[in-house]
Task: structure prediction
Amino acid sequence: MRLCREFYFEAAHYIPHYKGKCEQLHGHTYKLEIVIEGGVKKDGMVIDFAKMKEIVESAVIEKLDHQALNELFENPTAEHILEWISVQLNGKLPLASLRLWEGQGKWVEILI
Result:
């Protein structure tokens, strides 16, 4: 069975050496969709949504929310940010996929 939880964070960045608007400092509302996969346990859940929230907020959201991402990443593209998120959550949740939305209509996804 799969289940998904969404998380949101606000952050600013610029893309170094990019020719266009994104070379200037700007911000986004990011949406992170985390899909986990597993069997239903005796308690009737794959995972407690509250436990999932606790893990994701401490491993990811608290580190990225309201940050200047260029201070954390050399080249803070959505792809690099999602790769980092994947590493942070590896082994902490039974991940099936991760999707990071950079505003509306633009996303990157990792299938695990």
Summary: The longest strand covers residues 2-13. The CA atoms of residues 32 and 100 lie 5 Å apart. The two ends are 15 Å apart (CA to CA).
